[in-house]
Amino acid sequence: MKDPFLLHIFNPTKNVSPFDVNMAYEAEFDGVIPYSNVTLDEIHALTQDTIFSRGPTGVRRTGIFIGGREFGLAMEMLQRAKAAMVPPFEVSVFVDPSGAITTAAALVACVEAALKKVGHGDLSGKKVHIFGGTGPVGICAGILLDRCGAEAFIASHRGQHVADEVAREYNARFHTRVRGAASGSEEEVAEIVRNSDVLIGSARAGVRVVSHAQLEQARNLKVAADVNAVPPSGIQGVEADDLGRVLNFTPSKALGLGALAIGNVKYKVHYRMFEMMKESERPIYLGYEDAFAVAREYAGRKILGN
Ligand SMILES: NC(=O)c1ccc[n+]([C@@H]2O[C@H](COP(=O)([O-])OP(=O)(O)OC[C@H]3O[C@@H](n4cnc5c(N)ncnc54)[C@H](OP(=O)(O)O)[C@@H]3O)[C@@H](O)[C@H]2O)c1
Prior knowledge:
Blueprint: E1 6-10, H1 18-26, E2 31-35, H2 43-51, H3 55-58, E3 62-66, H4 71-84, E4 92-95, H5 100-117, E5 127-131, H6 136-147, E6 151-156, H7 160-174, E7 179-182, H8 186-195, E8 198-201, H9 212-215, E9 223-226, E10 243-246, E11 255-257, H10 259-279, E12 285-286, H11 288-304
Parallel strand pairs: 1-2, 1-3, 3-4, 4-12, 5-6, 5-8, 6-7, 8-9, 9-11
Antiparallel strand pairs: 10-11
The structure holds NADP nicotinamide-adenine-dinucleotide phosphate (NAP).
NADP nicotinamide-adenine-dinucleotide phosphate binds at residues 98-100, 103, 132, 134-138, 156-158, 162, 202-205, 207, 209, 227-229, 259, 262-263, 266.
C-alpha cells in the first residue's frame, strides 16, 4: 500500500490494549504497530525513528499513541515525544493510558451536563468524591474536576494517607488542589455519601463501593456517576445505561449516570481524537484538555440536547 496512515503505539506495559488497536482500525488507520515495555528513556529515539522516514508530507499520515496503565507516566512520555520532534519532521501524538483520559473526560462532561440539566449550575464549588480515585481514571477525573472549579476528593480504600500521598503527587505535577479521602470502612463511605454533591464510582472493575442504603442518606446528592461496567455496579441503584435518570430513592432526587451511557460518550471522544490526528494539517498533541473539550460537546448534545 502506498502512503498508508500509520499509528505507532508506544506502550510502557507488556500488552498493548486490544481496545486501542480496535479503535485505531475503526478510525481507519491502515496500519497499527504496537511496541511493548517501552521505557520513558526510549521515547526520544523511538519518536525520532518515527518522524524521519516518510518525508515532510508523510509525517501527516503518521501518528503516535501512548498507552499503558499510568496517567503520570503517559503524560511524561507525551512531553518526551514532543521534545524529540524536529520540525518539519513532526507527527501528531495522542495519549490515553488505559482509556483513562477519554473515560475521565466523558465522565466529567456528563456530570457537568447533568448538573446543568436540573438547574444546579456548573461544577464550580461542588463537593465531588471519587471512589477508586487513585486509579488512572480517578486521577484524571480529579484533575479535570479541579480545573472546573469543583472541590475534588480522591478516595482510597487503603486509607487517608494513601489518598493524600497520591493527591500530593499529582497536585505538584499538575498545579491542582485535589484532596484525599479515606473510604476503607462502611462508616467512612457513609460519611462521604452524606456530605457530597456528586459521587463518582471509579474503583476497580466489578467492585461495589456504595450501597443503596448509603445512598438513601445522601441528602445533598445531585449526581451519582458510575464508570464500572462489570457487574455488580460500583454504585448500587445506578443502572449501566442511565443517562440522567432520577434516582427516586435518594432524598434529593439525584440523577444517575451509568457506565454504558458514559462509555458511549467515551467511545465517541476516543474515535474523534483519532479522526483529529488524521485530519489535521499540522501536528497536534492530544491530552486530557482536548478530550474534555470534545466530550463536553457530545455530553451537551446527549444530555442537554444542545
Ligand atoms: N465506562 C467506560 O467506558 C470505562 C472505560 C475505562 C475504564 N472503565 C472503568 O473505570 C474504572 C476505573 O478504571 P481504572 O483503570 O482507573 O481502575 P483501576 O486502576 O483498576 O482501579 C481504580 C482504583 O480502585 C481501587 N480499588 C481496587 N480494589 C478495590 C476494592 N476492593 N474496593 C474499593 N476500591 C478498590 C484502587 O484504589 P485504592 O486501593 O486506593 O482504593 C484503584 O486505584 C474501572 O471500573 C474500569 O473498568 C470504564
